[in-house]
Design brief:
The chain is mainly α and about 130 residues long. It has a domain of about 60 residues. The chain contains four helices and no strands. The longest helix has about 35 residues. It is elongated and about 65 Å long. The termini are far apart.
């Protein structure tokens, strides 16, 4: 069960990071980052299965590949942005984390722009 592995890795990484923080804060930060990356690696397999299921459902529902790809891209940008920003915030770099979040929001809007434009064109055609 993936959640058991994730919790175990998270707890072990946290305990070691807390113990190391007094002696070697840089190593503790690196350990916390590695712990986060390991957890992210574990969730990639179930995430792939979820994307496959969603893709099949979208095909069955007749949703175009273009729209589905945009939605996946926006969701991916959101998750990766949060992950990167949280790593920076955990390292004490709140300013960098805020810039990552801003960049993620801009990239999500950029990725969603074709869908938004298509929707606006559809509405304008109805008027």
């Amino acid at each position: 069960m993936e959640i058991g592995k994730i919790i175990a890795i998270g707890l072990v990484g946290t305990i070691f990071a807390v113990l190391l923080k007094k002696e070697n804060p840089q190593l503790a930060m690196l350990l916390a980052a590695v712990t986060g990356i390991l957890i992210f690696g574990i969730i990639c397999v179930p995430l792939g299965r979820l994307i496959g299921l969603l893709r099949e459902t979208a095909e069955t529902a007749g949703v175009g590949d273009g729209y589905f790809a945009v939605v996946l891209k926006v969701i991916g940008i959101a998750y990766l942005t949060q992950f990167g920003a949280q790593l920076c915030a955990d390292a004490g770099e709140g300013t960098v984390a805020a810039k990552i979040e801003l960049a993620g929001k801009i990239l999500m809007m950029t990725a969603a722009a074709p869908v938004l434009i298509g929707l606006l064109e559809l509405v304008m055609g109805l008027v």
